[in-house]
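user: Kindly work through both lines:
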Amino acid sequence: MTEISEIYLNLKEDMQNVTISTHEFITYIEDNDWFGIDPIVNNDTEDTQVFLPEDFYNNHKEKFLFFFSKKQMDIEKKRELIIKMMEERFPKTIHHFKNFDLKEKMTNSHFYHICDFFLTFLSKEIEDMTNSEIQELLKIYSHEMPVVECKIFAYFLNWLSDTVTKRIQKIEIKQRKKGQNTKYAYDFNTVCRLYYVLFSETCITENRYYEIIAKEQNSAVALLFLSIHMLCDLRDTDICRLPRPNLPYEPQIVLEKIENGNITDVEAIVAVEKIERELHIFEPAPNKTKRYKKVPYSKLFIPENAKAHMGRLFLAAEAHFQLSAGQKKNYIYPITTYELKLRTLKCAYAP
């Protein structure tokens, strides 16, 4: 195994004319899910060490050199490069997109970013996709891209519907109403109730949260996801990419101890602090804004008096994930229909 700092030094040596920070290097690997490799993290030393296979750098060297060589290009050269790449993989899509650009006259940056998205997420030409496939692509796009580029993409789909194929269903683009209050997602009373329902010791005890999350994976993930959402300014995609905690016991034993109240506060807090430490080491850029420079890395803020409770939620979600044998991509995931609905909870608080 090779320590990740040695791999970084190999890359710097091969790219002497390009400045690459450790943050950029690790973010790139992390954004690509470590290229299918599970890194080994050693927390026993003063400085946390991360190890990867000996052949990791050689196996992915060409990808590293290509990706980081683009740093020294100006946006016009990047646009030329990505057009060539699109012409090799999706010639029809880039032909239509260039024609659309003649009308839209988008910036080189927007053109490049949208094509970059195409190369990452398309599996075939857009005009050959079904409406359900396009809807799924739009769903991904709304999580990955800034609002202005989402609108450009929607306009492009509508343009395709008008000029290329009627099979593509037109997208309704809604504008915000003037004077509409969009500053907050929830009103004050809802926020107060959510905090009470999620973090009040009385509510946790009366509703037997730990018994529920030990038995039901969706309930464990729902409570964890909502709790993180209320504590941190993280998007859904960034919550799903949070590091995984280490289980102090076998998964089934962890769930039994949570159900019986035998997971200690220390064990739960250690789980949270391991996640916080990895975020601090790797400094992952927020998924939606990772292409921009000087964007603060994703941070997980958990108050000290909530760490033991949150640790139990993290441990339950991870234990269920390991027992599910890869049925889910991540141990945290958005749940649109919650098994545990807030209105069913017996909480005395009513704002």
